[in-house]
Write the structure tokens for this entry.
Amino acid sequence: MGLSLEVVSDHERLRTDAIASDLRALVRGEVRFDEHNRLLYATDASIYQVQPIGVIIPADADDVAAAIKYCNERRVPVLPRGGGTSLAGQCTNRAVVIDLSALCRRVLSIDVQNRSCRAEAGITIDELNRHLIANQTGLFYAPDPATVAQAALGGTIGNNAAGARSIRDGRTSENVLGVDVILASGERTTLESGAGRHDPIALRLASAVADVCRRNADEIRSRFPKTIRRNAGYGLDMILKQLDAGVAVEDLDLSGLICGSEGTLAVVTSAKLRLHPLPLARGLAIVSFVDLFQAIDTVAAIVATRPTAVELIDQVDRRGVVAFLVAYTTHLGPVRAAEAVARFGDRVFEVIRERT
Ligand SMILES: Cc1cc2nc3c(=O)[nH]c(=O)nc-3n(C[C@H](O)[C@H](O)[C@H](O)COP(=O)(O)OP(=O)(O)OC[C@H]3O[C@@H](n4cnc5c(N)ncnc54)[C@H](O)[C@@H]3O)c2cc1C
């Protein structure tokens, strides 16, 4: 299916030209409102196609703030974009697209001792991890959606991405320690634990969110799904959990709320991230079944062996064989990967034998 060219009224064309010209005067980065670029940004990895009003490639966070403030004052919608690998049309809209993936992609700092780093929103997860390896930190950033080569940090925060290994290392929300954001007003703040103690904007937001959580506490407790890998609306459950644990409003960490908010609450320009030690060995066990239901029945037993990932591959061959790929990593010592596979693989196969 091809993209069709739009028919726009003269009035709309003039308005769009005026927006482009105003934005060019405001930002140092690029402003692309031509047909070619609007077609390029009309899709993400979903089936949806919507031509944006135009595209901005911000040079830095100042550009993002200026563009958002301008658009907000004129009621022009904005849409932040990273790698554009969203599957449900999150990156398509009749809006000014702010593409942070081109120029806002630096690693800002690394704190090996405290296992954390700060990076700009446009860097891909792969690039960030390559940087951590090149600097011999012995650490890595864990969330690993299948698109790590294209997915940008800001986009993974927007979608609260979780990869195959999230059963051990958590989703993005469990690996983000703080976010530097720009609000619709163009105001800038950092959302992290304790932010409300020194930043009036962060305190204002924390008080409002705490109020929403307290007023709806029963609903949040009863209706939020209890599964680990889910992203159901704004993560108010994460904030309520902090309030239940006695965290004061000024200490509330709102960064989890930004995870999964798909750019609707704020635009992330950079984030402070939790890092994990690189595993000393990796292993993979392949466990095959002739029946899909038998395979699925075995998941709990496989997860009990504490793998880092469990993936189901459907219909491996024409007889309908299905397979689980069970990945393990170990920090226990300098075990070679092959030994790890054999050791853990045996455990998995024992469990399977018991059940068959
Ligand atoms: C083949 C394939 C496999 C995938 N596998 C997985 C998987 O294993 N696990 C998984 O979780 N997902 C998966 N995805 C979905 C997608 O790749 C991830 O959600 C990824 O994290 C999105 O990153 P992105 O940079 O492409 O985000 P984008 O698509 O660019 O943006 C995602 C959302 O975040 C918002 N956003 C972007 N940048 C910012 C910002 N700076 N501040 C605030 N909001 C922002 C956008 O507006 C949008 O709503 C897969 C997608 C594909 C196509």
Summary: The chain has a mean pLDDT of 89. The chain has three domains: 10-99, 107-276, 281-355. Residues 337-355 form the longest helix (19 residues).
